User: Fold this.
Amino acid sequence: MRVDIVSIFPEYFAPLDLSLIGKARANGTLRLAVHDLRTWTHDVHRTVDDTPYGGGPGMVMRPEPWGEALDALAPGELSPDGHTLPRLLVPSPAGVPFTQALAHELAAESHLLFACGRYEGIDQRVLDHAATRMPVTEVSLGDYVLFGGEVAVLVILEAVTRLLPGVLGNAGSLDEESHAHGLLEAPLYTKPASWRGLDVPEVLRSGDHARIDRWRRDESLLRTAARRPDMVAALAPEALGERDRAALDRAALDRGGFSSPPGDVAK
Ligand code: JD8
Assistant:
C-alpha cells in the first residue's frame, strides 16, 4: 500500500518509523511518504492560512498550496509508471466516524492520501475540487476536539496497517478481536497467580477450557453492558444464546435495571 501524508507538521509522523509500522515500511508492505505543505507555497513567509470569509474566529487554510500538493501527489490519470488514483482522507470533526469497518475498507485500497488540516480547517473548495478527480472522505476520530488532523492520521494508519497482509504476525488474532464480534474483551491475567493480595480468577487456572470460554463470554457481556450499552443494543438477536441473555439480565439487575429482551436493554 502507498500512503502520502501532507501536513504543516511533518515531524509529527516520526513515530511511524517505529515498531510494526516501521517494520512494514522497511519490508516494503507500506510505502509511506510525509510531505510539508509549505513545499507548495511561493511567498517568502510560506503562508498557508488566511482570515475566514464571513467572519468568525481563527484562520482557514488557503486553497492554493493544497491544490498544488494534491496535483503533485494525485496527478489524476492512471499513469503507466505505477501511479494509482489515491483515495483522499481528510480528518475533520465533521467527518464520518472512523470505525473498524472503515479501517478494513481502507486496508483494501492501494493508495491513500491524507490531508492534515490545522487552524479552523481547510477551504472547502479544496475538497470539492479534489472530489472531481478522486474519492474524498472526511473522517472523524470521535466527538472531542483536536488541534488538527495529524493525530487522527496516526490513529487511522495504525488501525489500517495492522490489517495489511503480513503485518500482524499472528494471523489468527484478527477475527478474535472485540470489534469483530461486537463485544468488549474479557479481562486479562498473567503470572504470578497471586500479586499484592490479588488472585487470578480460579477458573482461568482450572484447565477446563469450556468453563474458561463461558467465563470469558460472561465477563465480555457484563463489561459491554456496563460500559457500552450502544454495542449491546446493536447485537443481532441471534448473536446471543440462552446463557448470554441470562448474563445480560444479571448485569441489568446489578445496575438497577430490569430483565429485558435483546435490543431493548435497560439504560
Ligand atoms: C482536523 C483543524 C481544529 C476543528 C475548530 C480548532 C478528527 N475527532 C476530531 N476532533 N477534532 C478533529 C480535527 C480537528 C481539526 C482538524 C481534525 C483541523 N482542527 C478545528 C474545527 C473546530 N478547531 C478530529 N479527525
User: Anything to note?
Assistant: The chain has a mean pLDDT of 92. The CA atoms of residues 43 and 170 lie 50 Å apart. The beta strands are 2-7, 31-36, 49-50, 60-61, 87-97, 111-115, 136-140, 194-195, 198-199.
